[in-house]
Design a protein that fits this description.
InterPro entries: CBF_beta, CBF_bsu_sf. Keywords: Nucleus. Belongs to the CBF-beta family. It comes from Lepeophtheirus salmonis (Salmon louse). The chain is of the alpha+beta class. The chain has a domain of 127 residues: Core binding factor, beta subunit (Polyomavirus Enhancer Binding Protein 2, Chain: A). It has a 7-stranded antiparallel β-sheet with strand order 5-4-3-9-8-7-6. Strands 1-2 form a two-stranded antiparallel sheet. The chain starts with 14 loop residues before the first strand and ends in an 8-residue tail after the last helix.
């Protein structure tokens, strides 16, 4: 599965009808007045995004076994289209790389990397290795008969970079993971910004008396018949 890259078609831009999101896949539905009234009268809601990264990414990268094993140069291989003829797999590998995606497995650990990058980087770098070594993408010109791949991704909350090469004939090669310092810094800033925003929202709700009192909730739960829950 490839990461979400944004909506290319404006017909599926999210629209809103009575508080329900419509992404263009279905016609907008008529929402009864009672549904909209219940939405308006409901208590305030705060939606949390699941953090993409953890605190102290560098420390986790250096201590976790999964990173220790996969940060060493190891044999890798192309894993897609195993049921197809070999020459077809070779062609599909190169086509996928030019389109900005591929799937590589570490033969020793069994970990599979679904790698993606901006396909425009391939044409931007061209034969200039100084550029291709600094940006995510594929380079077919660095060594004849090999595809050098560099791609950033997040594994277990840690920003890492895959770097390696695949032989175009054998569809095997050598690769490893390394800590992506730049991406980790950016994601840390996003994480801190989200935490600050949530703290601000909670303080405002608490200040306006809109957060439930934990003691009152406990009393209400005890007063409810067994088997019923408070919503």
């Amino acid at each position: 599965m490839l990461p979400y890259q944004g909506y290319d078609d404006h017909s599926i831009t999210p629209t809103y009808n009575g508080g329900i999101e419509n992404y263009g896949f279905y016609p907008q539905m008529h929402i009864p007045d009672c549904a909209s009234q219940s939405t308006e009268s409901s208590s305030p809601k705060i939606f949390f995004k699941i953090p993409k990264v953890v605190h102290n990414q560098r420390d986790k990268f250096e201590k976790d076994e999964i990173f220790k094993k996969n940060s060493r140069d190891s044999e890798i291989r192309y894993t897609l289209y195993r049921d197809r003829p070999y020459n077809e797999r070779q062609a599909k590998f190169q086509t996928g790389c030019r389109e900005g995606h591929t799937e590589i497995a570490n033969s020793s650990t069994g970990l599979v990397f679904v790698l993606t990058w901006n396909p425009m980087n391939y044409s931007m770098a061209g034969y200039d290795h100084r550029i291709s070594d600094r940006i995510d993408g594929v380079n077919f010109h660095k060594e004849p008969g090999k595809a050098h791949i560099r791609a950033s991704l997040i594994i277990n909350g840690v920003c890492v970079r895959f770097r390696g090469w695949i032989d175009l004939d054998r569809l095997e090669g050598i690769g490893a993971l390394e800590f992506d310092e730049e991406m980790a810094r950016v994601e840390d800033e996003i994480l801190q910004r989200d935490i600050t925003l949530y703290d601000y929202k909670f303080k405002n709700l608490d200040k306006n008396g809109m957060l439930p009192n934990p003691h009152d909730l406990e009393i209400q739960e005890r007063s409810q018949p067994q088997g019923k829950k408070i919503h």
